[in-house]
Amino acid sequence: MRxxxxxxxxxxQADPAWGATIPPVYLSASFAYVDPETLAxxxxxxxxxxxxxxxxxxxxxxxxxxxxRIVEARGAVATSSGMAAITAVIFAxxxxxxxxxxxxxxFGGTLSLFSRLVARCGIEVRLFDPLLPEQLESVxxxxxxxxxxxxxxNPRLDVPDIPLLANLAHAKGVPLVADCTLAPPGMFDPRRxxxxxxxxxxxxxxxxxxxxVGGLVVDTGVFDWTAFPxxxxxxxxxxxxxxxxxxxxxxxxxxxxxxxxxxIHALFHYLGLETLGLRVRQHCENAxxxxxxxxxxxxxxxxxxxxxxxxxxxxxxxxxFEGGRYGGLLTFSLADREECFRLIRALRLPRTLANLGxxxxxxxxxxxxxxxxxxxxxxxxxxxxxxxxxxxxxxEESADLIEDFSRAxxxxxxx
Length: 415
Ligand SMILES: *Cc1c(COP(=O)(O)O)cnc(C)c1O
Prior knowledge:
By secondary structure, this protein is of the alpha/beta class. It has 14 helices and eleven strands.
């Protein structure tokens, strides 16, 4: 079966009690048992069951199960946000005294997490440029517990040679962790390219309608955790075997740090999964069409989109991504901030807000918003300048989007 078919049929029995076809929402903080012996057995893991919704909840479990089946992974753990998912991975794999190798082309929130909190916890953060494999090689030694990167760096929109970097990590016995938020199922299969742990912000494409915030950690099933040097996972191998990483994530990090999602949010995430394949296709087709239009427009200086043949990321992206899909995010440049603001005001369809992966097209001026507190050097590293605009292309009809951009660019010339 193919992805979109699996997505619709992931839970043939979502509700054995009454036959509901969609996961029932179990809005209950805790779960009662008729006798103390049963509760004790559930606590001791000798009988399946739920205890308390911070530790586990049936609706959340159904969403995790559905996702695991759709992408054919070893297992998945849902969290309250994408940032919580990344935090959970870091603390499951590393502790004070360890080091981690982290791409320098990252989402701003992730870069802050690594450079402030993680560094303060005594974990040494070693940055490398994901387009320069020799930089990763030079920071990898026995202290490093994992390699972290984004499949498509945001907002530089660069695509690293993931299988090559995975091989470097595996040669040192450590996993490759990839934030796959911008390259969701339907365009990129992390298992095929050596990604051991996939992280998603569910807030974006997977839920897909801009409703709720959420995150997910997926164990793709590639990595042999029994040989992993990190101490928390080592200790869990006796109890959980090859599921040791998932065990530490769920029973130590998410449970103890209180990162679990609401069951209502899990329902929204599940509903997004059913249409994910269709939406990803439409986002990518529209982004390709809009990128090609902008690249030909005389007012537009530079367009970055991995699906444009002259884009530096095109060769790698064409190898790693499926179905001629290159994602829904693009950036382009105008003369300066003033012109960017005028264009945003002239556009009718795109909303201007800080999110991506919504059904609607979104546009933002990164330098004055997401990057307003960053130094000039950090901005340059992320490819952000005063004339840059970032567009998250939605699932409208592409002809309407192109008409709107075309008209708004005309307005710029007239004013
Ligand atoms: C949004 C985003 C995150 C953070 O996810 P939240 O759900 O907002 O916590 C992490 N990585 C990437 C690439 C993102 O776009």
